[in-house]
Amino acid sequence: MQLDDGLDAVNKAVVDKITSRAIKGMATYGKPMTRTDVSTLAWLQHFQEELLDAAVYVERLIQDERNRVLDREINPEVYKP
Description:
69% of the residues lie in helices and 0% in strands. It contains 2 helices and no strands. It has helices spanning 9-29, 40-74.
């Protein structure tokens, strides 16, 4: 797929990831996203499951960052240049 050269590197990276996931999905499931054998409710449930997974990942990162910040406050000598 040829993209508009006006896209910045971040958007191009997202487009590349979407394309890669689409190819992987077709290889794994053998059906395109335009399939009609899945109900709207099933699509919504899949979507919700993906969002719940994302919430877990975000929580993990928040806890990691919180711990890093607290460690820096408790042990500032370790972080001196």
